[in-house]
Write a structure and sequence with these properties.
The structure holds three protein chains of three kinds. By secondary structure, chain A is α/β, with parallel strands linked by helices. Chain A is about 40% helix and about 15% strand. Chain C has twelve helices and 16 strands. The chains are: A alpha/beta, B alpha+beta, C alpha/beta.
């Protein structure tokens, strides 16, 4: 990966003037994606699912996109890009399109883990050449922080609030990576904008693969998660360092953990700065944090074991 | 920029926008409560502020080096200050109210001489 | 020159699609339209058409992929029925709102519940306000001809609006009829090359498709869209005439069957019109002044032309193949009655629901309608504004 000075010379695919909250990492991730893309070799076309990122960057008559971009609905970024990519193959074959183009679908966890899962599964199974990026902000943030299947255990959202008898979301996160991996696609990875070099390597790799690829990116949400905007990258880093958000990739079925914290921090370090977990630090909720830690440890151990076994 | 409101028979069909990146004409700088102030003297040009800026507001030259901040669009989130690794930090947050009426140079002197 | 073939309505649609040879088709199987994508898949497998078939995992994705493909900049078609059409519903609005000239064959079928796979118009009538051009075919020939014309209509620069051509499930889709298939090249020449307006794949000129429009813009976009849909009326007439010049079968916005001096008139759409024509012929032989107004273009609704065509009528019965679902009558009834309000005629108008879920409608039933109209004219009294044809038990 080139030095940042080199990357800063490139024309940006996403420009300023969008209406994302101050400190939102949606655009940070996207800027890193564009920086990573080998745009000397190919052009980029994007399909976006409905969500914060979409409404903030495509608000008529304004667009923040310097590349062709399409939004149609919430649950279908994958099937929309599947149609675009199919047309590309046809028109390329018929000589009506000359350029090399790579296709990226962007959605958040609501549009990926939940309402868009069927379309995503279908598009991956059919083998379209596209990179699907899930900017996972752990809830339906565009409609005001409602729980999704990506909301962490114990997390308080507007539809899984903590209260006198409830401690927030009672279920662990859906293991989307395992579901995606079950499609036996050539490349899937998990990344974080805090670790930009790693994220860029993954994007570059994914865009070079012939076939569907998937990258799950943690997208800290200052508004929904409740932390000061300047802490966004730090929160992402804490997710990585606590192994709440392990950085790994699965290439042709084989896992590689890209980052092993020298000192794995306890999950409380990640939970504490966020309002959505504040209630967990009240008396009587100790068991929730314990269970949270147990789930994180279990997943991390499982990943380490997989790597050890070469799976 | 105040946007020109077109009549129904003037809009492009299908709601298409044929002016890529025109959101640059929409200034989000007014959202700011605080602004980052940059000190080129201590800046090590690591470009972390650039790679982490949500609003593409770190201005660069043709060598890809930082040359300033786009205050028309910077929303004042403060990520750049938080992530600035130089010692002392080359970016600091200042209340907009305090920045009012001062040139960048004046403000820089004031902030970094403290 | 064309040739006479004996094939089903679904095969007629499939052959039209083969000859149109769109760049992309995204489709999901659903009875009774399944044979269309099946046939298309076979044509592709045999190298008879150069099209990519996206075998999506749902109709929602079918329409989503069609929208993506059409926005990308090529010709796109699909086919569906009933629940599949209903699952597309959200995306139907988006296809028309984005002004993408997708063409779809709809094999009209009942909607659940109860589950029923047979013909009626619950699907297309449910989607009548999705902003699509809707053409309803009476038979296989019209389905075939209609799909070819629909491409040219939808892609017209003043229209740029998706279009569907509907045929009745099973009555047409699975019945073998003799119809005329034109030469492949003649069809291609007729529809011509497609020139997309703002193709997404033109990366030199990046376009943003599908931005959201706040209250100070949405209204203008919807009215701009409406103008495109309304423009389709004249284009349907023009293309129908051109089609007649090239292939010898001319089409208008509607078909007036023995209507000029008709006093007792049935208004209907779809396969029931064939049965009605037979009854009209028989009654005409007996000297009765009966006629049929067959709806062809349902959206945009050519209200003025249809009202004009009904001026000789002394009593009118409108046949709707869908439950009125709480309205004063079926959609066709409401449209026609509304259209007539602005004209001199005050002919009594009654409404029938018929054929739900594949229920047979036979000459005896159509005869009963004309009998009722006759009685109304004789007595000057409408005893029942709404009734059902071939329903067990009297509707009350």
């Amino acid at each position: 990966m080139a030095l940042l000075n080199e990357l800063a010379k490139k024309k940006e695919g996403l420009v300023s003037g969008h209406r994302l909250c101050p400190g939102c990492t949606h655009s940070v991730i996207m800027r890193q994606v564009f920086a990573a893309a080998d745009t000397d070799k190919y052009d980029i076309v994007i399909a976006a699912a409905t969500g914060c990122f979409e409404v903030s960057t495509g608000l008529y008559p304004y667009t923040s996109w310097n590349v062709p971009w399409i939004h149609t609905a919430f649950e279908n970024a994958a099937s929309t890009i599947a149609g675009v990519e199919t047309m590309y193959r046809v028109l390329k074959r018929k000589g009506k399109v000359k350029k090399d183009i790579r296709f990226i679908a962007i959605a958040s966890d609501g549009g990926t883990y939940d309402i868009g899962l069927q379309a995503l599964s279908g598009a991956i199974e059919r083998g379209h050449q596209f990179l699907y990026i899930c900017n996972d902000n752990n809830a339906y943030q565009n409609t005001g922080n409602q729980r999704s299947s990506a909301t962490p255990f114990g997390g308080s959202t507007t539809t899984s609030p903590n209260g006198k008898v409830k401690f927030g979301k009672e279920q662990p996160r859906k293991d989307i990576m395992s579901i995606i991996e079950g499609h036996h696609l050539p490349y899937a990875a998990q990344a974080s904008p805090s670790n930009w070099r790693d994220l860029m390597n993954k994007v570059k790799k994914a865009l070079d693969v012939n076939g569907p690829t998937y990258i799950n990116v943690i997208e800290p949400c200052t508004t929904g998660w409740g932390f000061p905007p300047e802490k966004a990258i730090e929160i992402a880093q804490l997710a990585v360092d606590t192994c709440v958000w392990p950085l790994y990739e699965v290439e042709n079925g084989k896992i590689k953990i890209n980052y092993k914290p020298q000192k794995k921090l306890p999950v409380v370090e990640y939970l504490k700065p966020q309002r959505r977990f504040a209630h967990l630090f009240k008396k009587g909720n100790e068991h929730v944090i314990e269970e949270f830690q147990r789930q994180v440890d279990e997943q991390w151990e499982w990943l380490l074991k997989r790597e050890e076994c070469g799976l | 920029m105040s946007e020109k409101l077109l009549n129904w028979d003037e809009v492009l069909i299908g709601g298409a926008i044929k002016d890529p990146g025109n959101s640059k004409n929409y200034e989000t700088g007014s959202w700011r409560v605080e602004r980052p102030v940059w000190n080129p003297d201590t800046c090590i040009q690591c470009m972390f502020c650039w790679v982490y800026c949500p609003d593409s507001s770190i201005l660069t030259n043709e060598e890809g080096k930082m040359i300033g901040i786009d205050y028309d669009h910077c929303k004042g989130c403060g990520i750049c200050v938080e992530q600035c690794p130089s010692k002392p930090k080359s970016l600091k947050m200042v209340l907009e109210a305090e920045a009012k009426g001062k040139t960048e140079e004046e403000l820089r002197k004031e902030v970094f001489s403290k | 020159m064309g040739k006479k073939v004996a094939l089903t309505g679904n095969e007629a649609a499939a052959h039209a699609i083969r000859q149109i040879e769109p760049d992309v088709i995204a489709a999901f199987p659903i009875t009774p339209s399944t044979p269309i994508p099946q046939a298309v898949a076979q044509f592709i497998a045999d190298g008879e058409m150069d099209t990519e078939l996206v075998t999506v995992e749902s109709e929602h994705s079918a329409m989503s992929a069609c929208i993506g493909a059409a926005a990308a900049g090529g010709r796109v078609m699909t086919a569906t029925s009933a629940n599949g059409y209903a699952l597309m519903w959200e995306m139907l609005y988006i296809a028309s709102g984005m002004r993408l000239p997708i063409v779809m064959a709809v094999v009209a079928r009942a909607l659940s519940a109860p589950l029923n796979i047979h013909g009626d118009h619950s699907d297309i009538m449910g989607g009548r306000d999705t902003g699509w051009i809707q053409i309803i075919a009476e038979n296989s020939q019209e389905a075939y001809d209609g799909l070819i014309q629909a491409v040219k209509i939808a892609e017209n620069k003043d229209v740029m609006t998706p279009a569907l051509v509907a045929m009745d499930g099973f009555n047409i889709s699975h019945a073998i009829e003799i119809w005329e298939m034109e030469d492949d090249k003649a069809v291609k020449d007729f529809i011509g090359e497609y020139k997309p307006l703002f193709p997404l794949l033109n990366t030199d000129d990046p376009v943003t498709h599908g931005a959201w429009a706040p209250p100070n813009w949405y209204f203008e976009h919807k009215m701009s869209q409406l103008k495109g849909l309304l423009a389709a009326k004249d284009v349907v007439a023009k293309v129908g005439k051109e089609f007649g010049e090239v292939f010898g079968r001319e089409y208008g916005l509607y078909e007036a069957y023995k209507l000029d001096d008709a006093e007792l008139v049935i208004v209907a759409a779809g396969s029931v019109c064939g049965t009605t024509k037979d009854v009209v012929d028989k009654l005409r032989e007996e000297g009765q002044k009966v006629g049929l107004l067959k709806i062809r273009l349902f959206r945009p609704f050519p209200y003025k032309e249809l009202a004009d065509a009904l001026q000789s009528a002394k009593a009118i019965a409108i046949l709707d193949r869908v439950s009125p679902a709480g309205a004063q009558g079926g959609p066709l009834f409401n449209e026609i009655r509304s259209a007539l309000y602005d004209t001199p005629t005050r002919a009594p108008i009654i409404n029938y629901t018929y054929g739900l879920g594949g229920r047979d409608t036979q000459p005896i039933h159509i005869n009963s309608v004309f009998d009722r109209l006759k009685k109304i004219v004789e007595t000057g009294k409408i005893e029942k504004q709404f009734d059902c044809l071939n329903l067990r038990g009297e509707w009350r």
